[in-house]
Design brief:
Helices cover 0% and strands 24% of the residues. It is an all-beta fold.
């Protein structure tokens, strides 16, 4: 993939994080196919973990998906 103009973060020669000139972000993906792409090649690790630091009994991590009205 053409990575010119990309911001890329390497750890021990492995590319871990990429921001393409188009604004697409890849975590574990050097050429993300979406605005955010997360690739996990390790079965023993969680791909995405949401944690709440609120200690109340009703606290839970929240993920909201929105779509603009057409």
């Amino acid at each position: 993939a053409d990575t010119s103009g990309s911001f890329r973060l390497f750890i021990t020669q492995d590319e871990k994080f990429t921001v393409r000139p188009t604004g697409r972000v890849g975590i574990g993906a050097s050429a993300p196919d979406a605005m955010l792409e997360i690739v996990n090649n390790t079965v023993s690790d969680d791909t995405l973990l949401l944690t709440s630091t609120d200690s109340s009994s009703s606290a839970a991590p929240v993920m909201t998906f929105k779509r603009n009205s057409l």
